[in-house]
Write a structure and sequence with these properties.
142 residues, mainly alpha, 4 helices, 3 strands, 35% helix, elongated
Length: 142
């Protein structure tokens, strides 16, 4: 949206996206019927709406899936990282049962400097406040 002097009133983000896509021209809507006060009010309202905006996760997922399937543009131009897009597309709204960990009451098993071997992974119990950690005896993996 532009005013009578071709100054952008709203759509700065769209213009940046168009430039990233290499577009030479973009469609505009001229707000010539608005007074300068109405244009100012519109700018404030448009920015306020963005502050109050929230994603409809289902629609976002569908739109990102379609962009990926179309394979016409680099989907990272949407402002989302590829890893974020992958998580959104693969999400089903509830965590996978394998991702849920049941927390049981009882005494702690690990102590500072314990090194847990979990297959090919290692987990060291330590404090981010200390400069270094001692690699003690490896504990049995779970």
């Amino acid at each position: 949206m532009i005013d009578d002097h071709s100054v952008i009133v709203a759509g700065h983000g769209r213009l940046r996206a168009a430039k990233l896509l290499g577009m030479q021209q973009v469609p505009t809507i001229k707000l010539s019927s608005l007074t300068p006060a109405q244009v100012r009010a519109y700018v404030i309202a448009d920015n306020r709406l963005a502050l109050d905006a929230d994603w409809d996760e289902d629609i976002l997922k569908i739109e990102l899936q379609q962009l990926v399937l179309d394979n016409e543009i680099d989907v990272s131009l949407t402002g989302f990282e590829i890893a974020e897009i992958d998580l959104i597309i693969r999400s089903n709204g509830s965590p996978d049962k394998a991702e849920v960990v049941k927390i049981e009451d009882g005494p702690s098993v690990s102590q500072t400097d314990d090194l847990w071997l979990l297959g090919r992974y290692r987990i060291l119990c330590g404090s981010s406040m200390s400069a270094g950690a001692k690699l003690g005896n490896p504990c049995a993996g779970v």
